[in-house]
Amino acid sequence: MNPSTDLSFAPLSEAFAKDPYPFYADLRARDGLTWFGDFDVWLAARFEDVSEIVQHDKMVRSLDHIATPEEIADMKRAQNWHDMPHHSRFVQFSLLDSDGAVHDRLRKQVFKLFTPVMVGRLRDDIQTYVDRLLDGLADRPEIDFVEDLAAHVPGHIIGRVLGVPDEDCPQLRIWSENIVQFFDIDRSDERKALAERNTTEFYHYLKELKRAREAAPRDDLLSTMIAAEKAGHMNHDEFFSTAMLILMAGHGSTIDVLGSGLHALLTFPDEMRRLRETPGLMKTAVQEMFRYESPLPFFHRYCTEDVKICGKTYPRGTKFGVLYGSANRDPAQFPDPDRFDAGRTPNWHIAFGRGAHFCLGNHLARLDMDIIFSALLRRFKTIELAEPEVRYKRGLSVRGPEALRIGWERS
Q: pLDDT digit string (tens) for 20-32?
């Protein structure tokens, strides 16, 4: 295949939202990386190239390593990423967008609460919460799986880990979605104001919650982070930035992959039947859900020195766009990649990233999904789409259905 030199890549379009994979296939078929001027970035679409970039020791996420404060300010202005006081302090800087010693120090303060052993202790609480939600929905012949079920689980569970009261968790989702939306390509003034306003409200809420925890510590992550701040392991801004990141990361992407995961099972009914007959495959099926529709399909890196990628040398400061969504459908890595295979092994997908920035919450997200899908298949003998077409969100940085209306029948 000889793709044209003109790049037809429109990630904000309806066509891309409906099915981005032909666009990704076109990118993979091109020689080397592809320049995407709308985002000032070199796109890596093949699994091999994405893996090399995210694990390269000369790649970072932060501009601090490659530009002066004045240069960074100019770049932010060019991207409408400036004049956002709270967003700049608590969102643009974070554990996710830090590198080296700073990243290692912050990650160490929260890592132990996201290990498989610690996450495993939440199983009974998650199961009880999911069962209660399903009890309240089971008699309805039709629901929006995304809004009525999926949206209620990840945020509440990560909220409990941090120490947020259950009744406040719905508001956290609103703040998170309104903040995260500004990470995509569309950086209009309206979206900018929305992100800053919600960051400010989120910050003031967490300040009050922190005061309450300082007065009466509990066995939760917020109290652990307060102790870390007092010990000098994180400062004031790092405390709130890390708390926001954990809460935001625990919301949108898991909701999205829950929706796309069920949509995949409905699209491949033989695989849903296979899971009913062999429930022990659920953990493998959950991994396949992340591969098949990666909920966070795009991230970036900058090189701190000249680097050679795909046989071409790129100068220090070059920005690379790593397309996890494309890499996870690369036929060079995954046989029959456009087929959902609940028993796919091996399945070394890259939906959680690689290297130092490997997703901290991956064990918790997978446990949420294991419990939810196992409960669904156990409690409902039929689950069917209740609408002819499922609309997916627009954007380069997200992948998930806007809604997923289903009908079901109890077992």
A: 999 999 999 999 9
Quickly tell me which residue has 């990628």 as its tokens. Answer: 309
pLDDT in tens, 378-411: 999 999 999 989 999 998 989 999 999 999 999 9
> Would you say 260 and 289 are in contact if contact means Cβ atoms under 8 Å apart?
yes
CA-based radius of gyration for the chain = 21
This prediction's pTM? 0.92
With a CB cutoff of 8 Å and minimum separation 6, the contacts of 403 are: 144, 146, 147, 390, 391
Residues in Cβ contact with 271 at an 8 Å cutoff, skipping those fewer than 6 apart? 264, 265, 285, 340, 341, 342
- Which amino acid makes up residue 33? L
- pLDDT, one tens digit per residue, over 81-111 is 788 999 989 988 888 888 999 999 999 999 8
pLDDT, tens digit (0-9, with 9 covering 90-100), for 335-358: 999 999 999 999 999 999 998 888
Helices (H), 79-153: 85-87, 100-111, 116-120, 123-137
Q: Taking 60 as the threshold, does the pLDDT of residue 226 lie above it?
A: yes
N-term to C-term CA, the chain: 49
Which whole-number Å values give the CA distances from 152 to 220, 252, 369, in the listed order? 20, 11, 13
Long-range contact set of residues 351-355: C-beta below 8 Å, sequence gap at least 24: 351/290, 351/291, 351/294, 351/295, 351/296, 351/324, 352/290, 353/54, 353/299, 353/324, 354/51, 354/54, 354/55, 355/54, 355/55
Distance CA 403, CA 195 (A): 23
Q: Cα 334 to chain center, whole Å?
A: 21
Q: How far apart are CA 55 and CA 59, in angstroms?
A: 8
Q: Are 387 and 357 within 8 A, CB to CB? A: no
What was the pLDDT predicted at 357? 87
